[in-house]
C-alpha cells in the first residue's frame, strides 16, 4: 500500500453516521480546545456544503489563515479527498496544477482540509485548519474527526 493509499484509507475510515449543525459546533469546539491546549496559532473552519457552520481564530493566527483554509477546502472539494493527500499526489508530479488547469489563487495543495464524509452519502463538507506545518494541520483535523466519530458511535 502506498503512502497515498494509506492517507485515503484513513480518511474513508472516518466516515460518520451523520453530520449536522450540532456536530459542526461540537467538532469546532473540540478543535478549538485541542488547539488551545498546544498553543496552536490556528484558524478553524467547518462547512456543510459550502455553508460555514463554525469558524474560529486562535491567538497567533493571522488574517491569511482563513484564506489558506478556503484554498485548501477548494482542492478537497475538487478532488473529494484531503488537501494533504493532494499535496502528496502533486509532489510526485510537479506539473499537476497546470495539468488540471488549477489557479494557485483558488486552490492550495497543502495539508489541513479534510472532507467530512457521511456513511452512504459521501462528502458533505470540509473541516479545515491552518496555521501549523501542513502535516500537523492534517493530523489535528483527523484526530478531531476520530473523536467525533467515537462520540457518535457511543450515542444510541
UniProtKB/TrEMBL annotation:
It holds the Pfam family HbpS-like. Signal peptide: none annotated. SUPFAM superfamilies: GlcG-like. It comes from the Bacteria. PANTHER family: PTHR28255, UPF0303 PROTEIN YBR137W. This is Heme-degrading domain-containing protein. The lineage of its organism: Bacteria, Pseudomonadati, Pseudomonadota, Alphaproteobacteria, Sphingomonadales.
